[in-house]
Design a protein that fits this description.
Length: 155
């Protein structure tokens, strides 16, 4: 399975050898529109890289409808909670459109990372960068939704 054109962010983060090893255990999956990929608070045992379509990440807000904090598309990683104990989803995710993706078994990837420390470092940096971006995006989105004047002039 080739990854070069399908997952540009992973291509930038991982060496060709490590990309190839990960793609060797990937499987292609399809999700119909409005399919719930995972729920906040549940066990994180898979992750995906989007080939086509859009996935909305959401956050539970007590007393309100879940807030969409980010939309993900082509080449983006869906899910990072699988890498960090206790392997519980911190957000939820729904296919907003029909989605085609590469699916990875988290236990298998963690085992590969444990067996190959360099792969583990590359995956950790990749997922860490995604996590930092998602945290920033979530903060901005929540300020837009719930702060008195939005995130406009706040730093």
């Amino acid at each position: 399975m080739t990854i070069t054109t399908a997952t540009p962010r992973m291509v930038q983060a991982l060496s060709a050898d490590h990309r190839g090893r990960l793609m060797g255990i990937a499987r292609e999956v399809d999700f119909p529109q409005e399919t719930r990929l995972f729920n906040e608070g549940r066990r994180a045992d898979h992750f995906w890289i989007i080939r086509t379509g859009t996935v909305a990440l959401d956050l539970s807000v007590p007393g309100r409808r879940a807030a969409i904090v980010e939309r993900l598309g082509f080449g983006e990683l869906v899910g990072w909670s699988w890498l960090f104990k206790p392997y519980i989803w911190k957000l939820g995710a729904t296919a907003e459109t029909p989605v085609r993706a590469y699916e990875f078994d988290a236990t298998a990837v963690r085992a590969m990372c444990a067996d190959d420390p360099e792969l583990g470092r590359e995956v950790g940096r990749w997922v860490g960068n995604v996590l930092a971006h998602r945290l920033h995006s979530t903060r901005i989105r929540l300020l837009d939704l719930y702060a008195p004047y939005g995130s406009g002039g706040l730093r």
